[in-house]
Fold:
Amino acid sequence: MSAPLAAAELFSLRGRTALVTGASAGLGARFATVLAQAGATVYAAARRLDRLKELADSDARIHPVACDVSRDEDRTRLVETARAATGHVDILVNNAAASGETRAEDESPDAFADVLGVNLTAPFHLARLVAETPAGDGAPPRSVINVSSILGLVTAAPLGGASYSASKAGLIGLTRELAGQWGPHGTRVNALAPGWFRTEMTADLFGDERSARWVERNTLLRRGGDGHELDGALLFLASDASSYCTGQILTVDGGWTAR
Ligand SMILES: NC(=O)c1ccc[n+]([C@@H]2O[C@H](COP(=O)([O-])OP(=O)(O)OC[C@H]3O[C@@H](n4cnc5c(N)ncnc54)[C@H](OP(=O)(O)O)[C@@H]3O)[C@@H](O)[C@H]2O)c1
Structure:
């Protein structure tokens, strides 16, 4: 059972502990900031510690943790750091990602495996680490948010990216499966599927006039997204506003996949 909340409290994350991977840049930095603004204590993880420290300087609720999500010992240290300091981890945002080669013919088996390691295997292991301790009586509800992509739902053609698209589609399957396994324990698992947003990952795309026009032409709202336009979807999935929502894919893409 869940008690109704006043509208102003619906998105509050006061008393919650959140982990955000890939928080040194782009969408992840924004996600860490938004969760902290909603009241969560946030452990911001990535390999570039200097960037994380800058982010932490902007909000005392953000704590930097150097972490390569493809390394088992780093993932364990991240979860243990947060648990040692606050006693619990309530929100996991699996956001870190790598993009692979564009042409399938250029992507070696090792390169393909590396992308899947960061984008799919690491989120699975992090989710397991977070969910391994039972959410005790009175503990905050637990929410895992896997950052997938519209490219987990539809083709990237005429752009390419076999490992990236496979990893993002895999993340959607993983989301449904973990939601099924962990629903009885009250752990919710959902995916966020963004469309095109300007970040380091998409710098070449938006930097090229023809590609940028292609994004505009094929998006129903005729533009790429601004980072802050994922704030509402993130807060919905992280908070009690989505207490009866699990195994779902929340697409925020200006209408790209509605065509
Ligand atoms: N931008 C878009 O249009 C778009 C669209 C759909 C989905 N997405 C998804 O949204 C998420 C964020 O994308 P973005 O555009 O913000 O990407 P980005 O600007 O390239 O940032 C990627 C982040 O992941 C981190 N990262 C990469 N490999 C890592 C590793 N091995 N261990 C730890 N951290 C690692 C990077 O930090 P370090 O280099 O410091 O480790 C960086 O903070 C990704 O899951 C992406 O697939 C983005």
In short: The pocket of NAP is lined by residues 21-22, 24-28, 46-48, 51, 67-70, 95-98, 118, 147, 149, 194, 196-197, 199-202 (CB under 6 Å). Helices lie at 26-37, 49-57, 72-86, 109-131, 162-182, 203-207, 209-218, 231-238.
